[in-house]
Write a structure and sequence with these properties.
It is a single chain. This protein is of the alpha+beta class. Helix content is about 35%, strand content about 10%. The protein contains 21 helices and 16 strands. The strands form three sheets. It has a nine-stranded mixed sheet, sandwiched between helices. The chain has a five-stranded mixed sheet with strand order 1-13-12-15-10, with helices on one face. Strands 5-6 form a two-stranded antiparallel sheet. The longest helix is centred in the first third of the chain and has 32 residues. The protein is globular and about 60 Å long.
Amino acid sequence: MAGAWDVFGDDDAAAPAPASVPPRASAHAFFARAASCWRAPSPRAGAASRALELDLASRARPVLAPLRALGHADAALALESLVARPSDAAAALVLRASVDALRRLSSPAASPASPASLDASRDALNAAALLARGAALERALERAEECGADRPPAAAFAAAMDAAEAATLLAEAATIAGEDAPVLGGGGGGGGGGGGGADAANWVGARVSVAFALAAKAAARDASSDEAHRPSSNASSERTSERVSSSNASGAPLPSLPTTLAPASRAAARCAASKAASREVPAETADALRVAEFHERFFKPRAPVVVRGVMRRDAWTAPERFRDLEWLRDEHGDAPVPAEIGASPSPDPDARATRDDGPGERPGRDVPVPGGRSVPVPGGGSVPVPGDDRDRRPGEREDRALGPGGEDGSSSRDGDRRASSGDKYRRPPTWMPLRRFLETYMRGAEEEHESNAEETRASPDAKRAFSPPRPSVAYVSQHSLLHQRPGLQAHFAPPEYCMGRLLSANAWLGTEGTVTHLHTDEADNLLCQVAGFKLVLIYPPETSPCMYEEDDPEGEDESEDEEGASGARSDARIKNTAPRSGSGGREDGARGDNGGATRAQNAATNVGSGTNRFARVDAEAPRTRERRPRFARARSLGAWTILGPDDVLFIPRGHWHYVRALTPAFSLNFWF
């Protein structure tokens, strides 16, 4: 096996700079291998393969034997039940059993096992999860195909978005499983799956293509209906509805994402960051930082660094293209995406209260809107955006609990889908076309940012200005848009600092005020800021005792206020339920049938993954130092940075990090 210096060369310092532009992402082995998991080679091939039966029995046969032999009886039994009686609930049980087994393998308390045994276990459990995803998509496609022209547009839209979501989860699982997974082979017929790689198009890519085609058709039909996008008449949403309808009716172009940050906004962000971290992350220029130097100075010692100018040097066109929301809408607007509406719930809501506020209330203009408000969504109706989170623990979902935990086995598929990005504290997303997300939530985002910047200039009180009005926040986070829309791959190249390795690539698009709370990832990460600006706080692994982790038996409320609440049980404590699911925001679980599990479950089935950690600390909240006194001790080791266009931040595996958008923004990240 070649070492690092065999790859980089013996005299890197004297080597000339690269003379040619790096190949685009579409030529990278990671994206090329994944292509057959996301689309059929042709529409005709997709339709023909869709007509074939999934044939779970044949595909499960080579998986069941190793599951039993390796001691994963629960997963084997669940898979047998799925084969005997395919259903959403049965698929949910397979996913839960597989993810639980993989987490046990990653646990420090796990019995020692040989690397070969661990690999075999992970392969078998990955394969079981993949089959469950396939069965879930099959059910979702059946429901979507039943919604003919005689069904209301809203019903067809909802069913098609469910199918698109199930397709995304299947394609992600297939990408994780790898081209050698036996269950990726084409066609039933007793062959037991057979060959991987491109043959995956016979059932994974083909079914995914059919689902996306159904979603595009339903979205077009839905958009043509006046009722489909009529704003809610709810009085509490009147102002939001007026803004959405008037801006859409005006025909004004969508704004481009910002390339500059107002000095007042930058000063306020620096002020807030300096209270939580003691120094700025060091920065280097891409022209000066060669790969070997990056490896020795930052990768090996696990040291964060910002590298500036990577996109310019490597001739990315993404900074211009991706900030152009008109272009995104016109070229990729029919792509179904998961939109999180409203601010992420705080890991510690009471930390946002001032001494004079009631529990859970936010200071200044962040005070909850009495009674909450609603935001109109495609398909008719509206999504509630509660203004008062006091009665709900952070991270607690507004819809049915995950998978087999539900009485009927149904679930919300995406309520916890962010766990692989580390952020459990997110609202369940609503799936909609990218076009609708841009027109509804991003059209006025720049104007709102300017308004917020003006308020910041008028108020020196940073705690009253560190976020926009909550109902205006919307986020498409950790989404596989780069696979879903392969044309985007022509506009960037995976950074050379990935050193040839790539596990996952994601897109992040949202308004000002989106937040990813403190967490760790189980992979090294390059966060690439394509457009807009974000504040990042980052802490090394040795600060973990200061993070009040959710499974920390001593991590209860340690605040010592005048009421003497020291040691009281914090309402912020959350149990680590199985991650990454999604209902599209429905509270009744009716849209929660895609196998009852989530993208974080997909991530948990990745080798070496599934052990993300979550802090119950709201890093920028006014009362954090009072309520979480141990976190104050992390400040001396913490660092911060403000990322702008063409900045790339290296976040080493296991480092705690927190991200807040200072403006509307578009980011890519690469786990490697």
